[in-house]
UniProtKB/TrEMBL annotation:
GO biological process, one term: defense response to fungus
Entry annotated with the keyword Signal: yes
Gene assigned in the entry: LOC102583983
Organism taxonomic ancestry: Eukaryota, Viridiplantae, Streptophyta, Embryophyta, Tracheophyta
Protein name per the record: Hcr2-0B
Alphabetical list of SMART domains matching this protein: LRR_TYP (SM00369)
Amino acid sequence: MDYAIVLLLVFLCHEVFTVSSSKLPHLFHKHQTSSLLKFKNTLTVDTSASYLCQEPYPKTSSWNMSRDCCSWDGVICDEMTGHVIELDLSCSNLAGTIDSNSSLFQLSHLQRLDLSLNNFSNSHISPEFGKFSSLTHLDLSDSNFCGQIPSEISHLSKLQSLRLYGRLRLIAHDFKLLLQNLTQLIELDLTSINISSTIPLNFSSHLTTLRLGDTALYGIIPETIFHLPNLETLHLWENFQLSGYFPKTKWNSSTSLQKLQLSFVNFPHNLPESIGYLTSLRYLYLQNCNLRGPIPESLSKLTCIEDLYLQYNSLNGTIPSGIFSLPSLSRLVLSNNHFSGQFEDFNSNSNSLILIDLSNNQLQGHLPNSIQNLVNLTDLDLSFNNFHVDVSLFSDLKQLLYLSLSYNTIDEKEVNSTLPESLEYLLLAACEVKELAFLRSAKHLSNLDLSNNKLQGRIPDWAWSNWMSLTTLNISHNMLTSVDTIPLQIVYTIDLRSNLLQGSLPVPPNSTTFFFISYNYLSEEIPSDICNLTSLVMLDLARNNLRGEIPPCLGKITALQVLDMRHNNLSGNIPTTFSNGSSLSSLNLHGNKLEGKIPQSLANCKNLQLLDLGNNNLNGTFPVWLGALPDLLVLSLRSNKLHGPIRTSRIVNMFPELRIIDLSYNAFSGSLPSSLFQHLKAMRTIDPSMGAPRYHGDTYYEDSITVATKGFYREIVRILYLYTVIDLSSNKFRGQIPSIMGDLIAVHIMNLSHNGLQGHIPSSFGDLSSVESLDLSGNQLSGEIPQQLASLTYLSFLNLSHNHLQGCIPQGPQFHTYESNSYEGNDGLRGFPISKSCGDARVLDTNDTVSGLDDEESNSDFQSDFWKGTLMGYGSGLCIGLSIIYFMISTGKPIWLARIIIEMEHKIIMGRRKKQRRQRNYRRRNINHF
């Protein structure tokens, strides 16, 4: 009976407690609900705000007054008090700002707050965060907070986890204060914070995770970090300012340090033997730390180590064989060091090794037989060494997926060996492969690289049958002569460049995205089937002998980014089918026989960065409508039949990004286009942050263009975005050089030669601070060379020859390097290097009076004029010469006649030079420039 009463009392007490506890929270929910809804209304939901998350969703969409806030997504309340104690809005697609007046700070009982992975753009971390006195976990990472971290964060003395990484600053004083007050910290993540301080000594002894990666820390790492008894994870990666000795003394053998990541920290010294005391270490990442010397033998004592990453250092000597015997080692990466000697045999009783990367060292000799005991190996990279490889060693590695032996030597006697059927990636570039028999067993390859080998003839039929799973095939730089068909199914990248392929163009599968077959001997027409490749991104057919017309349907492939058909024998018109939505970034048709006008449909290619139509037979006028292309960097129309003046349109911002314009060897006429030069924004400003144009897959393809610089033709590859070029040479431009061209201060190469330009060289050319090559030769320029040109410190090539310049050649460091041929054909010039001294010599003005000359000067002039007349007579005909001498002798004061003769002489010489220039231009037009 008593037992039943007790049970009844317990039941009644439980009911009373349940009822009271269920009612109690409602005393607080109204206020908390209002605060949370106000906070929600200050923000918006933006689907791009949490782009770093795998599965973001807007948690606040469930928040409304009809429900208890404790039941909302991301909100957790205390069951006893009803206070909101946890708010998790990570990956909620939230966007907006959080200021100090935010209702968020009314939730004074919060213990956990996670606002990570949203976009609070330009929000500063409010000092009000420091009033969450009960907070144990605070995560504001990757949410675009900016500015300085307030010192009030150090007031959160109960914090166990603090994650703030992002575009933030933390001054040295606050950093020390943070560590001094937050004595309960277990996890501290300040990745990418600009701390600009040395690492303090007083870390919490409770720390298990410390991340200070990619900060601006200075000085050396204090050894106290390695004496934290509970430390499990240490990240100091990408701290370029940290340096000094790697800590050597008294590693605490009782430490539980399991993960040590000091990547990109500068340790220009040996890896110490004392690292072997970290017996609990499971993950060691010391890549790019400038470590030197050999690997210490003590590393073989790390029996718990699973990941060992020491790549991109200066480690040398031999690789200790004991490393391969570590019982727990799964991943060993020692690439990009200076290891040498033999890859020694090792005893491995472990089946844990799944990845070995020894690439880019100086290892040599034969691989040890013990490598075939690593039966669980999935990834092996031995590329860029001097190994002699017996591929039969890999036949029993049934789990092997990735094998890279590039730039080693496969023993020819082993070509009949077999490879594991499991292989998916096989990279054998530059391995002196002549036969493919050893690939028969590899039937599941997805990526195969056989480039730079000695393959000849044609690919055997069995190989195509085996390669049906390929997505990437590279057999470039071999001696293949025939590829009739490419009977693959799902290949995305095919590279057949630099072989001896002849005949018609083989059409790859419709799935192909990147197709490279340049530098061969293909000679037929381009088949229209090529247009079935609707996913094509890059098509490189350059430097073949392809003929016929360009298939118009190529302009309709909207995915196409790069179309390179330069240096073929293509004829007809450029397709007019380029449509809206085109992705074309690079179009290179240089060096063909194309005719007609430049199609205006190219204006639909809004992403176009490079357009090279040079060395064709195109006609028409300057395509001014190209100026509307916002990203055009390179425009080359050289060596065509384009004509007329260069007119500009009413486009407000013409050619805003243009950095190379080559219109040479055409028939453009009229004045140089001042209105065009007023635009060209990229040439008028020097932007050191200018980035290279990038294409998806540009590991395989590099843009190139040939420009005339310093008297030579030079092919610029990949770095063309660094060059700024104006080449308007060999046209029919007249009039003066506009002084506004001096505003193009980013220009490296300027060529206005072989036109009919007149007047003076603008003094504003002295502002061309970046110019390296300036060619104004073969014009009718007059006056003096501007003294301002002497200040051009980068000007290494100057050609002013064959003009009417006069006066003194400017003196300066650069002008002392130019030879006399820079000035030839300017009879009025004086000074170094064409004469010893300029002095006070002045060019005789034809209007000067000579009546005051005395008899002695007349006799001297007479003798000089006599020999001039004689030489002129010799060059122009004996009869005319004798007649000239007779008149000069019979005249008392023959100087006026001598002047006439000198002018006649000048006209004769200039006539000859013009004739020679026309002949030279004619020859140039018939030369196929690169």
